[in-house]
């Protein structure tokens, strides 16, 4: 066994680099996990000045209109009554590429929505996929390192990509989606969006339910063939950005219908897998889609930098009636996203026109670099106080939840990383399966070590024997006997 131990920046050995420390088996994540905080904080500061991830993006303004009464599930003002409209801003993006990268690469797409509600801003910060590659935030910096450039060659490194995935079988579901036809959307208008994580809705009586968000494109899903995407990347690397701008400019306003899946709180303890695991989807047979409203994009930004580049989103930007779940990946993002914005845009990023709420803001935050508003004037700057300053509102407290167990670094109970990936493969047509296999074989061919290829083939085989066998054959290898 190697004595080359992984350490913190101050040289202490790391005992668990796969699971963040939680209070009990389901969390929440503990701030005393200094290794997790160090990884996330350092990771947020690794690139200047563009975003560490989601650097290349396009955005638009619009509105959200409620079309179905869901007030019995949530007291959130933006969902309070049918016909209610809330202004919003959305930013679409690729994940791994730099600001100047091509739009039509194979990559998940960021799908970040900011609602300017009467109770403050609410952000849904998701992707165009319902799942993610990993399920614990402690693995996020390592994962993104594999997607970025090799520090020696400054080139993309397929060996690192597949080495990490092969050591992280929970990634298989998302990898299968990424390598399918949906890995390259035809336009930003022709793809779905998802909140991905599980959230909690709470009504006026304090009753809660678990929910997942689904934005279904009303334009229909369309994707690009590999050759067409490569040609467009060479001819017009800003193809998606241009398409979105032109569609809105010409009055062809793209729209999405928002649905939620709703799970009773008690089902989380008895469902067939942990519903907070972001590498899994909830069956729509168990929890059908319920319509909430429509999102329409009808106005382009006037200035790209001021609006699209300086827009900041965080899944921790919440409003009364919407709370978080013990999802380990979400728990880490609650810290990491706002921390990244404080570093990249500044301590006062929330006061920029694109980010500031449209409702009054009363807080005791003062000073900091680039404070460009009245800095609170001469108002009371602390709480509690005896001078009529803003005070807490107990009615808006988050609902309590039970925590039990010992503080430890633990994984999710469920280790079936294969059933849902296999189900996805079996849902595809023969033509779609063929393209999926060809995409994976093409992506894995440059991998330097055969053992990485064989380990990954084993994961595909466990999802579906045909899936693994076809990829093995495409790579000129055999499925390892140990997984048959």
TrEMBL record:
<dbReference type="InterPro" id="IPR024711">
    <property type="entry name" value="Catalase_clade1/3"/>
</dbReference>
<dbReference type="GO" id="GO:0042744">
    <property type="term" value="P:hydrogen peroxide catabolic process"/>
</dbReference>
<dbReference type="InterPro" id="IPR024708">
    <property type="entry name" value="Catalase_AS"/>
</dbReference>
<dbReference type="GO" id="GO:0005737">
    <property type="term" value="C:cytoplasm"/>
</dbReference>
<dbReference type="InterPro" id="IPR011614">
    <property type="entry name" value="Catalase_core"/>
</dbReference>
<dbReference type="GO" id="GO:0042542">
    <property type="term" value="P:response to hydrogen peroxide"/>
</dbReference>
<comment type="similarity">
    <text>Belongs to the catalase family.</text>
</comment>
<feature type="region of interest" description="Disordered">
    <location>
        <begin position="1"/>
        <end position="26"/>
    </location>
</feature>
<keyword id="KW-0349">Heme</keyword>
<dbReference type="GO" id="GO:0004096">
    <property type="term" value="F:catalase activity"/>
</dbReference>
<keyword id="KW-0376">Hydrogen peroxide</keyword>
<dbReference type="InterPro" id="IPR040333">
    <property type="entry name" value="Catalase_3"/>
</dbReference>
<protein>
    <recommendedName>
        <fullName>Catalase</fullName>
        <ecNumber>1.11.1.6</ecNumber>
    </recommendedName>
</protein>
<dbReference type="GO" id="GO:0020037">
    <property type="term" value="F:heme binding"/>
</dbReference>
<dbReference type="InterPro" id="IPR020835">
    <property type="entry name" value="Catalase_sf"/>
</dbReference>
<feature type="active site">
    <location>
        <position position="54"/>
    </location>
</feature>
<dbReference type="InterPro" id="IPR002226">
    <property type="entry name" value="Catalase_haem_BS"/>
</dbReference>
<dbReference type="InterPro" id="IPR018028">
    <property type="entry name" value="Catalase"/>
</dbReference>
<keyword id="KW-0560">Oxidoreductase</keyword>
<feature type="binding site" description="axial binding residue">
    <location>
        <position position="337"/>
    </location>
    <ligand>
        <name>heme</name>
    </ligand>
</feature>
<keyword id="KW-0575">Peroxidase</keyword>
<dbReference type="Pfam" id="PF00199">
    <property type="entry name" value="Catalase"/>
</dbReference>
<dbReference type="GO" id="GO:0046872">
    <property type="term" value="F:metal ion binding"/>
</dbReference>
<feature type="compositionally biased region" description="Polar residues">
    <location>
        <begin position="1"/>
        <end position="22"/>
    </location>
</feature>
<dbReference type="InterPro" id="IPR010582">
    <property type="entry name" value="Catalase_immune_responsive"/>
</dbReference>
<feature type="domain" description="Catalase core">
    <location>
        <begin position="7"/>
        <end position="391"/>
    </location>
</feature>
<dbReference type="Pfam" id="PF06628">
    <property type="entry name" value="Catalase-rel"/>
</dbReference>
<feature type="active site">
    <location>
        <position position="127"/>
    </location>
</feature>
<keyword id="KW-0408">Iron</keyword>
<keyword id="KW-0479">Metal-binding</keyword>
